[in-house]
């Protein structure tokens, strides 16, 4: 079975590099532990060699090139969306947390005090889920008792059955769901089907936090698309705010918040940029963050 995909590994790499910063937009000290040293070296080498694609005419050392790529290309999306989701999760009052296509997300392993009363479910394909658990063991980390791993294919119309029948899951309790980084790779009909599945298992008042590609891609989005395609995970669709709102409404959700890149930068990156004016980080272009409530 296949293990953790390249996109998830690159995301963890970006989080690990940023965690070394003096100040963090979002700090994930366990990201590096979930990657092997060989993976870290291979990703760093690949990105450094590609500096000419990301920044034509770049002049600097390989180390400076890698920092530029991390700050301008790799880190903005995983840092911003994680900060957005976890901030909304803390304020939600949810008793259960569903992390879809969890990849190398480490929240369940480093959960803050306010999350320890939750039941946390990581839903991923069988191969990646098993790989994640092997990596946790290899890193000598201990999965808390409230962290549960569910193997399921989100493209399968019965995927949520694994959650619905899990002894720790309660369909009556308010939940929070974060399908971060996956809307890009779903065709619209598949994304709609996934939302309908969630609507069936999430009671009223539950919330979903996600990032999604906004319509009218720019050169920045084209580079992101090329990076994903190179990893064998081509992007599939993009939405306007109105299209996303209408889609969510059609399956039983109400948009509570929808942030564009300028709003994301102001909310989550501005404090870091004020402290690090020589190395600012800005939200990825043409990517919005959406928080929706189950009605």
Structural description of this entry:
- With 295 residues, the protein is an alpha/beta fold.
- The chain has 12 helices and 7 strands.
- It has helices spanning 6-18, 37-49, 51-54, 62-74, 76-92, 107-110, 126-138, 161-164, 188-201, 219-230, 241-250, 261-275, and strands at 96-100, 119-124, 147-151, 175-178, 207-213, 253-259, 287-294.
- Strands 3-2-1-4-5-7-6 form a 7-stranded mixed β-sheet, sandwiched between helices.
- Helix 1 (6-18) packs across helix 4 and helix 2 crosses helix 4 (62-74).
- It starts with 5 loop residues before the first helix and ends with a strand.
Write the layout of secondary structure elements.
Elements lengths: L5 H13 L18 H13 L1 H4 L7 H13 L1 H17 L3 E5 L6 H4 L8 E6 L1 H13 L8 E5 L9 H4 L10 E4 L9 H14 L5 E7 L5 H12 L10 H10 L2 E7 L1 H15 L11 E8 L1
Parallel strand pairs: 1-2, 1-4, 2-3, 4-5
Antiparallel strand pairs: 5-7, 6-7
Helix pairs in contact: 1-4, 2-4
């Amino acid at each position: 079975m296949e293990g953790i995909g390249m996109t998830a590994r690159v995301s963890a790499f970006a989080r690990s590099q940023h965690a070394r910063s003096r100040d963090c937009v979002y700090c994930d000290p366990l990201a590096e532990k979930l990657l092997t040293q060989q993976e870290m070296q291979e990703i760093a080498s690949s990105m450094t060699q590609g500096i000419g694609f990301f920044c034509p005419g770049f002049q600097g050392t390989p180390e400076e090139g890698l920092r530029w790529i991390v700050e301008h290309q790799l880190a903005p999306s995983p840092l911003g969306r994680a900060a957005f989701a976890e901030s909304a999760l803390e304020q939600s009052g949810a008793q259960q947390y569903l992390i879809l296509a969890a990849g190398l997300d480490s929240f369940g392993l480093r959960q803050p005090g306010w999350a320890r009363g939750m039941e946390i479910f990581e839903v991923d394909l069988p191969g990646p889920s098993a790989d994640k658990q092997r990596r946790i063991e290899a890193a000598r980390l201990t999965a808390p008792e409230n962290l549960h791993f569910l193997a399921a294919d989100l493209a399968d119309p019965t995927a949520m059955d694994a959650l619905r029948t899990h002894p720790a899951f309660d369909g009556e309790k308010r939940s929070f769901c974060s399908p971060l980084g996956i809307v890009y790779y779903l065709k619209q009909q598949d994304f709609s089907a996934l939302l309908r599945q969630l609507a069936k298992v999430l009671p009223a008042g539950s919330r979903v936090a996600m990032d999604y590609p906004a319509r009218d891609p720019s050169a920045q989005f084209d580079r992101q698309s090329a990076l994903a395609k190179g990893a064998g995970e081509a992007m599939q669709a993009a939405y306007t705010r109105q299209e996303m709102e209408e889609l969510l409404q059609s399956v039983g959700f109400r948009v509570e918040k929808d942030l564009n890149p300028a709003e994301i930068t102001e909310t989550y990156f501005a404090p870091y940029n004020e402290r690090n004016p020589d190395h600012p980080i800005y939200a990825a272009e043409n990517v919005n963050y959406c928080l929706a409530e189950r009605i």
